[in-house]
Amino acid sequence: MASSRVISETGEWICPKCGSSAGQYRCANCGFRIYAGFFIRLLCQAIDGSAIWVVSQILQLPMFRSYFFFIFTNAASFFFFRLYFMVLTGLWGQTPGKMLTKIRVIRLDGYEVRWSNAILRNIFETFLVLIMFWGYGMALAHTSPHDFNLLSAPEREEFLGKFMPDFVGYCLLARYAYAFSEFFVLLFNKKKRAIHDFIAGTVIIRDPRMPFLPWRRDSSKP
After folding, report:
1. What is the span of the domain harbouring residue 190?
2. Is residue 2 part of a domain?
3. DSSP, residue by residue, 60-96
């Protein structure tokens, strides 16, 4: 995809709603705001979260059939969740939630997002999840696959809770805190950047002209 600049170095952009030249954060002619705010991003998260939840429920159906399936379904869930955001953002700057809400990720300098930006946007949460999986592995190491297979589903949950290292719980709390802090931070900066935007050097913009299918987008135009 050819790289095109949406926002200039001085912060100027062409309003996608009325076509006027605009600067900073809103169009003086029609009032359109270029940076995606709290509620539209919340809607985007709800759409993406629903899609991920459906897939995760399908993947978890065979989870407790055997030790192998427990490891496999957890690993598959991890890779799906991480790649869902990294790959789609790296390819088009959009997940399905962003496609439907007509928002997308770009670099802070106004150009199309790079793969490095997509990875950095997810690096912190990925690190937390990897630590949690390490904790799962330490818990499962206390029993043999044969013993684990003989346990009922409630007994397995109780077993994992008993042998799970404390740091796994702390990582889970950190994930929740991080998720809530994303929305808290974007409320207090004019470009509506969340924590992962600061980490990755990105910003999310709105453009009602964008097609639902990002590969049909003309990258030669802003």
Report:
1. 12-214
2. no
3. HTTGGG-HHHHHHHHHHHHHHHHHHHHHHHHHHS--H
* Distance from the first to the final alpha carbon of the chain: 13
Nearest to 60 by CA among 46, 50, 75: 75
Instruction: Judge contact between 70 and 64, C-beta under 8 A.
Output: yes
Token pair 């889970």: residue: 172
The residue type at 21: S
How far is CA 194 from its chain centroid? 11
Question: Model's pTM, two decimal places?
Answer: 0.77
Length of the chain: 222
* Tokens 């003989």, located at residue: 150
C-alpha distances in Å from residue 195, one per residue of 33, 123, 143, 189, 198 = 20, 12, 39, 11, 5
pLDDT tens-digit readout, 108-166: 988 999 999 999 988 887 777 777 666 666 666 665 555 666 667 677 667 666 666 67
Domain count, the chain: 1
Q: Looking at the domain assignment, is residue 138 inside a domain? A: yes
Q: Is residue 108 in a domain?
A: yes
Q: Is residue 3 part of a domain?
A: no
Q: How far apart are CA 65 and CA 59, in angstroms?
A: 12
